[in-house]
Amino acid sequence: MASIKVIFFGQLRTLTGTRETTIALEDNSVLSHLISHLDKEYKDFETQMNSINGLRILINGQEYELIGGLKTPLHDGDTVVFLPPIFGG
Fold first, then answer.
1. pLDDT per residue over 35-51, tens digit each?
2. How many CB atoms within 10 Å of residue 87?
3. In angstroms, what is the C-alpha Rg of the chain?
4. What CA–CA distance (Å, rounded) separates 2 from 62?
5. What does the H/E/C string look like for 30-80?
6. Running DSSP on this structure, what letter comes out for residue 9?
7. Pfam families this protein is in (predicted)?
8. β-strand 62-63 against 56-59: which pairing, if any?
């Protein structure tokens, strides 16, 4: 089993009701498996996630699209951050 730390910001934090959680996934899991797990645990997670323009997903500080996309392998001890864009003025 792989223990993955997941950190939420913005509306995903509101949806989940938490800033941080730890998810246990099967070995050889990929990012899409984590998202599916979160969607089962938190109603409409994937729909909300997909509705956020500019959402960044970081795996150990690296943009997921640059390191394998949704097929990026996850390993025990990894940290995944769901970070919506931040606007200010």
1. 999 999 999 999 999 99
2. 6
3. 12
4. 19
5. EHHHHHHHHHHHCCCHHHHHHCCCCCEEEECCEEHHHCCHHHCECCCCCEE
6. -
7. ThiS
8. antiparallel
CA 89 to the chain's CA centroid: 27
CB environment 13-50: b (16+ within 10 A), e (fewer): eebbeeeeeebebeeebebebbbebbeeebeebeebbe
For tokens 């984590």, name the residue: 34
- How far apart (Å, rounded) are the C-alpha atoms in residues 33 and 22? 14
pLDDT, tens digit (0-9, with 9 covering 90-100), for 50-61: 999 999 999 999
Q: Set out the domains of the chain in order of their start, with CATH numbers.
A: 2-83 (3.10.20.30)
